[in-house]
Amino acid sequence: MRIPLVALVFLTSAMAYAHTPVCRCELNGDRIDCEGGYHDGSSAVDETMRVIAYNGATLATGKLDTASRFSTPLPSQPFYILMDVGPGEAFEVDWRDIVGMSREHFSTTEAGDVIGSPLDKQSINELDKDIDE
């Protein structure tokens, strides 16, 4: 009885692992092109793709096409792309991880933090003032 149960657990975990979503994106001119799929090499046709700004705003949405591809215009602000294939199953690609993107696309600090994010210098000074009081 133990051997079939162990085999069942092993096969179930292998099937779950085989369907881990993966996505690769690259900059092509003024567009971001992505190809999604699963870790086992299978396609991810019709899965939801979202382009999301750091403030949480959705900049674009779409689905992977019949070739498991998604394309969107390059946003004018820092963003990440979320491949959402269901509850607990998602893959994120930050703009810094997109092939062909560089820090010159958005103003960043030496550490890679985005300049001009919602907490600009004035609001940070106001926060510091509130903390001191």
Structural write-up:
With 133 residues, this protein is an alpha+beta fold. 22% of the residues lie in helices and 35% in strands. It has helices spanning 2-18, 121-132; strands at 21-28, 31-38, 48-53, 58-63, 69-73, 79-86, 89-94. The strands form 2 sheets. It has a 4-stranded antiparallel sheet with strand order 4-3-6-7, with no helix packed on it. The longest helix is centred in the first third of the chain and has 17 residues, at 2-18.
- Structural class, please? alpha+beta
Low-confidence stretches: 5-17, 117-133
Main β-sheet, in a few words? 4 strands, antiparallel
The pLDDT mean sits at 77
User: How far is it from the N-terminal to the C-terminal residue, by CA?
Assistant: 68 Å
Task: Give the topology string: H per helix, E per strand.
Answer: HEEEEEEEH
Keywords:
alpha+beta; 2 helices; four-stranded antiparallel β-sheet; three-stranded antiparallel β-sheet; globular; 7 strands; disordered C terminus; 133 residues
Topology:
Elements: H1 2-18, E1 21-28, E2 31-38, E3 48-53, E4 58-63, E5 69-73, E6 79-86, E7 89-94, H2 121-132
Quick gist of this model?
The chain has 133 residues and is an alpha+beta fold.
